[in-house]
Fold these 4 entries.
Entry 1:
Amino acid sequence: MYRYKIQSKEIDDLFEAILSLETLEECYRFFDDLCTINELEAFGQRLKVAKLLHEKFTYQEIEKRTGISAATTSKISKSYVYGPGGYKMVIDRLNKLKEGKE
């Protein structure tokens, strides 16, 4: 079984709060309060890099498309490949949602 980096009552409460959000508008409102602009942008960039890794882009191609360094891409790749599978799970779900809209 995968051992999570951190698990606590506070983190459980945070995740329950996120799971209670129902719309993009609610997400924007909550995360605007919770995070700085830089933190939100970093989360978005990490997901974008994970999506590109999922699509088999090279580090050089990812850097060219995003401006994110190969070193940062390598860190994200490590989580993508060896982590608990969260990136893959979310990317697969987003792809299914996208297919349903087409």
Note: Residues 37-54 form the longest helix (18 residues).
Entry 2:
Amino acid sequence: MQYILGIDLGTSSMKVALLEADTLSIVAVADAEYPIHHPQPNYAEQHPDEWWQATVQATRQTLQNISQPDVIAIGLSGQMHGFVCLSKQGEPIQPAIIWADGRSEQQVEDLMQLGQQSQSSLPGYPATGFAASSALWLKQHSPKILQETDKWCLPKDYLRFKLTNIVASEPSDVASTWLYDVLENDWAEDICAHCGLTPEQMPTVIPSSQVSGTLTQESAEALGLSAGIPVVGGSADLPAQALGYGIQDSKSMMITIGSGGQVFLPTETPKIEANKPYYVFNHNLADTWYIQTSILTAGLSLRWLRDFLGLQEHENAYAHLSSLAEQVNVGVDGLLFLPYLAGERNPNPDANAQGMIFGLKLKHQPQHVARAIMEGVGFAVREALSHMPTSAETYVLTGGITQSPVWCQIVTDILAHPLQAPTQESAWGCVGVGLLAGMGVGHLDISTYQYQIENTTYYPKSPDVYDDTYEQFVRLYQSMKTSN
């Protein structure tokens, strides 16, 4: 049997799936966690070597019951926006600055002014944690880092380098850097230069379904694979998930609640409008773009509660939190949660936004906080969605939330719209880049590929039950922002 390996570099963990090459059905899957480091307030960093160690661990675990697997291609997916600086020796010069980083607020203001004068088609307003703002921060605060940088790359593309010794990327990921002209499909030279980046430091951009290189002997031995396996361009994580689920046109919209939260809508007619609270990025499919809006700490908010309650070692911590939340009524007896633990992006671009549990009383217990977090994330998604141009008929819900029926129902009631969710969490990002990898080696054709997905549809039980609480949620943030 032939296989395709899908690797998905998430914010919280590395997920690796071994896929049957013809159907992309999952034969085995494993993941390995790694931390986010916060060495100073507003900093969010990860160590690239921890990504690689997690890749080795998860890959070996995935392959442990497969004798001499015939892997014909490898696909890569990963968290967006991050900035990795590599030396001439190919070593990370410093920890990667990831999407949740908030140190570059002043640089964002600088880039916004530059963007108004630029002739490049930029995807929307810049934000902290984007590669452009992180690079500009380094230029102004740690110029030696950029001077020593031979090449920079995005998180998933660091794995490509480890696998192939080649520094390259593809449109769906570079589009999220704010260094790329999303309509011309080329680097925005004026923005790159302003951020202190030279043409020689930029990764080569290839199509998402094109082979970028082959697995080296050293990496093959580390992973337990054969050298020479083609590694295909791949995709940013969000469009990879969408492709894995079969979302290719504007009839369907994907709402993902994983570490962060995103709303994703494909389009073949991109329209760039200044100061809109959403982005227009390149898809991993040719001549296709997508509209995206993002909240920063969705599932990360629940992870915070898990760790706060000391449940890190609890084997079923998230199922436990879901069972607690299920014990509490709608509205949590007046408790409101603002999920801004790392600032916020859409529709409130505010690196200084703060999380809050509002309305605490002696009667409130962990179950109340668990449900308040789930409702607060749902309210943030509803607010972001309210600013998006869409006439999508089908709303698809993906991400870790699909393992929590109570949370799925909460979001369904808050949005007052049916939500279609996969019956099982099936590593959709790995499946998406598996499809791209199969296309890249000529084994699969997207026009004939048959998706095999089982869904559960959640229907609103009380469509208006959250309207008043949602309005309170919106007012609470506005009052907090005013008071600060």
Note: The mean pLDDT is 93.
Entry 3:
Amino acid sequence: MRDMILLILISVLFGNSVLEARVGASATGAVLPQETTKKPTVQERIMEIPPGTMVEVRLMDKHKVRGRLGEVTNEGFSLQTAQGNKVETQKIAFTEVKTLRKVEGETTGKKFSRGVIYGLAGIGVLMVILIIWAASRSD
């Protein structure tokens, strides 16, 4: 029994010292090793995106290129862009990329269906308001 109490006391004392170290480190602005987060590089971000995804790439020379992500190599990646009726494949080096983002393209069909849903919801709300108003007037 005495050993059990001793083990509990040691764990409480040890647990508090670890907690105090964490609180003390965060209060002074120090960063603990396991809490550091590293921003992913352009190459790491591109590797996470599946091929065929629409992306927008801003290059170091301030040009913007939009297209589908193609093959990714150690030096760069290919981007398939539409120029009129032709599809061109551009090779872009990772060192040329300033920013990269996925393009969440919304097709005309999605826009139309969302408009229809919002319109029907608005008509439904208006009907409920009219029914409530008519019921309150008849009393």
Note: The first helix runs from residue 2 to 27.
Entry 4:
Amino acid sequence: MSHVNQIRIEMRDLAESIRPVTDKANRGERLSVAESRKLADASQKMSSLGVEFQRARLDSAAAADAASRTPGDGRSSFVDDSPEARAFTEYLRNGTVSPEMRAAGEAAGSAGGYLVPPGWWQRLQVALKAYGGVASHFQQLPTDTGQPMQWATVNPTAVLGSLLAENTQVSESDYAFGQGTLSAYMYNSGVQLVSIQLAQDSAFDIDAFILARCAEALGRAEAAAVISGTGSGQPLGIITALAATSGQTSGGVYQLGTGTKVNVAGAASTTGANQVTELIAGTLAPSDWLGVLASVDKAYRALPGTSWFMNDVTLQNTRLLTNGFGDPYYPELQDDTDPKLYGYPVVVDNNLPNLTASTASGVIFGHLESAMVLRKVKGAGLLKLDQRYADFLQVGYIGYERIDSRSNDLRAATVVKAAAS
């Protein structure tokens, strides 16, 4: 049995073991101290299993990829059995530059390298999603080239229809358009080293190995950029974009008040029922969760895909919130396979920062497909270094792609700005 399946079974068994307790909490019945502790311990275990499951699934990318491959003579080949795909595999394995590779052309940039075939690029994009919970919710804009392109934005909330009297001219309504430029910034995977023996071994799935390593390195870089990028010489991150807004009637920044206290399972009581401030607890008080939700206009909240975005630490801290009787405040959030908060899905992205005093951070809520756009230039590139590591009998591979992100309609999302404790 694979490690992935073992973890899946362990998660299922853990969920079954606490089902009587969660059912009791969902019915609104009071939990005993022992039951509350059991639920909190199970929640922590489920969270760690979730992280382990994700890591195991990504590490076994080659095995999971087998369903999309065809059997051969000892070599596993991509379903894309085009001459370009076969030529690319030979380039990875032996450094052979075939006519098909030359026809594909060198990728942009002084480092050279060759464009990956379409099937390999599509698989890379799928793999990248595993590392970018926030990025995958942006509006996706693939382009064939990396030339700068203008992107128009508009805020029509001030434009309202009006009552019209008979035989009266209709007044004009002016829409104020904004404009941003989508560039194409180059990101690379760093050098991924493989021994010459493995690279040349027909039994070694070189395609899957390089795909998995490049996807992890590029995915983590992309995920960080679209969250906290400055927008100057690099992509604009969503937190940076939202933090720069002001005076919006929807979205932007939700400013927390000072000193709101919450009940946390296992925390030492210092002030009776209210135990610690929300910043110390690393989460929000229920009233502030609702405040963040309400800060995004209902028109966006009703769109499919509207979600909460936070890291594992914030999610775990929120699971530990209790009511005045020690029961979990959010039973719906305890399910690690499908956590929800006030009916909206919770997306975990560990590139999001923890809640920090006086800083826009921690939690994002909204419809990110409306709020942000992520541009990717089709045709990532790969460079094979045959000579640089020859004295170690190794071959180096560098994967790279070009991306940019810009704001679109920032009324559709909100970021939290925590007050000092």
Note: Residues 61-156+177-239+372-410 form a domain with the Major capsid protein gp5 fold fold (CATH 3.30.2400.10).
